[in-house]
Amino acid sequence: MRIFLLSAQKDTEVLGLKSIQYYLRREGHDVSILFLPRLQLETPAQQRDVRELLAREEPKLFGMSLMSGEYDKAKVLTAFLKREFPQVPLIWGGIHPTIAPEESLAHADYVCIGEGELMMADLAACLERGEDPRQINNLAYIQDGQVIRNPLHPLMAELDRFPPYEHVAAHSWLQHKGRVRSLDTALNQRYAPYLGRTYSVLTSRGCPFHCTYCCNNFLQELYDDRKIRRRSIDHVIQELEQARRSHPELQLVNFQDDCFLAVNAKQLRAFFQEYNRRVGLPFVCHSIPTYLTEEKVALLRESRVAWVIMGLQSGSDRVLREVYRRKSYSDHFLKAAHLLSRHGVAGIYDVILDNPLETEEETLDTIATFMATPKPFMPEFFSLSLYQGTEIHRLAREAGKAQDVEDYRRKNYLVYGKSDLNRMMRLSAFLDRSLLEPLVARYQRGRRSLAFRIHLFLAQLASSFFFEPLTYFRVIRLSQGGSYLRMAQTIPLYLKEGGKRFLDQF
Questions:
Q1: What are the residues whose beta carbons fall under 8 Å from the beta carbon of 318, sequence distance 6 or more?
Q2: Would you say 160 and 234 are in contact if contact means Cβ atoms under 8 Å apart?
Q3: Could you report the per-residue pLDDT of 379-403, keeping only the tens digit for each?
Q4: Which of 132, 231, 279, 341 could form a Cys-Cys staple with 374, CB 3.0–4.6 A?
Q5: How far apart are CA 74 and CA 80, in angstroms?
Q6: 15, 166 contact by CB (below 8 A)
Q7: CA-CA distance, 98 to 243, in Å (whole number)?
Q8: Spatial separation of the C-alpha atoms in residues 328 and 347, rounded to whole Å
């Protein structure tokens, strides 16, 4: 069956959609992806380009994957497809249709709830046979004005059943400057994160935590299952070997697991014995602070780790315990950060800002925690989004605070509020404690005072034009094992995204 999958995501790193594409291809279907990162359908010429491609390929099914931030773009694209190809059924999938199927079915014919590989294979086979698909597991649809949600497939335990995908999705197209072009390595490098030189891979699905703000909070309740499912070592390594052969320009592997280190040291050692022998690229991985140990960090260091991404989220243990339900506290974070620092491992540390359930004093606790964190490190600041179906959405609603947070469908969670607290939070990642503590003390004595305003302005000026750029150079050099040459070769990878985030603070 001829199937077209569509993505309006800002880049080509759509791991879930590529997994569905390659699974369906193995099942015998002819499947392509059309990437529309800018979604340009304003002019007749732009519409004609997309229409002619799809008319030529004659798909029998459209599938669109979206996160909540792509909801508005998905509506526009769906309206175009419904107008131009009314006879072709269209299904939405991804996290937004999963958490908001009723809203999604106002636009799509069907919605996939939860993981999509098995459901899409069932749907394609059913449509190919000319049968009614409404009994398929994971499918939601409208019947007699009511939303019907079918039972779910059990989560696939044997992830090796899903074939690896390729760095540049096969048989795919991308809309570039309003024109549709066949996707190749050169074009992919313009739209993939980090100039297409980073290969993203999942070795597992699931997370050991149940944080209230995360989509895993919803998915674990949806499936009533908190198990972490893992691919075999050989399955992962074969994918990475193929990626290296096909794309010698790759410089870094990004293990996108929610918590890559949620394994024991013996399992981790077995993985890196094969990885070091057969792949050997520097890598980045995510971890929860409580899963870092001396032995694991030593293994990472021996295996050319470039970065470890780790979440503090808040320096207030009350917020972590009662609001985020996160059993990793500020002392766990500081212990893990010191461990990484002792081993010379570069850290990227996450913090959530703009939380209406966090008090001013608790935000100051977060600033104090960052001041106590060994430098240099790379901070990542996220503005809290209250996603429908998550526990924190309910908590904020019950506290009468939900209206204080911007609509998650239209919010850029990388852009945070320009409050004095948030400004000092950013400074705490770059300024030495001796420079920041007097500023915090002035804030506490009188935030509206002229002395505080001048002090804050000068601190921001010094940080933006000296301390922050200096930190970036230091931490990127650390990620490259102290090599100035590799630092210089690596910096271009971070300029586009890093530059945008730097400018967003102003």
A1: 362
A2: no
A3: 999 999 999 889 999 999 999 998 8
A4: 341
A5: 10
A6: no
A7: 31
A8: 17
